[in-house]
Amino acid sequence: MPLDLDNLPEGTWVKRKNDTVIIGASLKDKRTENFLLGLLVIIITAPILFTRPLEMIEGETSILFGSFLMLLCLIFLYHFTTRALMALFGRVEIRLEETEGTIFHGIRNFGRTRTFIYKKTHAIDSYVAVYSHGVPNQFGIQIKEEKAITFGGYLKEEKVNFMVKMLQLFLKDGDKIRDLLPPDLIHNLID
Fold first, then answer.
1. How many domains does the chain have?
2. Scanning 85, 119, 151, 157, which has the fewest C-beta atoms within 10 Å of its C-beta?
3. Integer Cα distance of 126 and 165 in angstroms
4. Average pLDDT of the residues in 161-190
5. What is the pTM of this model?
6. Where does the chain cross the membrane (predicted)?
7. In which order are the strands placed within the sheet that holds 123-132?
8. Are 90 and 110 spatial neighbours (Cβ–Cβ below 8 Å)?
């Protein structure tokens, strides 16, 4: 299968930096981004909207109830803020070197990193991360070693399929693919 570097799915990239091949995809998703930012506004205003009417009805809100409501809102705020930031700025990158690969899932330099070794890799597949009403709506990538590594659960299906195909091609014949990729001249000049 020929490697067509001119027709990559939107939000994906393949580049070479010295002897390292980098396969990446952006987690940017406009629908998720708008939904989560709207939800953040609701979570931030919820304590104000619920505690004030209770004060009027009961005369005084209990400190315990107010603290519980605030803690609950802070937990939701943390979860949705991180998810919104990933929808805005997140990326998944796989750095393929001579004998091992490194998976990065995060924002800029902040995120989660995992390593796998080619010789121990049995298979690379896509999987359905979440079903909604019987329809798969979140996909991820699974690298099967001694212990399975799953990642990229918020990527769109076409990005997952692209990354899986690239990984399978690379593991099949990595040196040939490494030679097909032009070196990343900007990174080489900076280094």
1. 2
2. 119
3. 10
4. 67
5. 0.70
6. 35-51, 63-81
7. 123-132, 135-144, 149-155
8. no
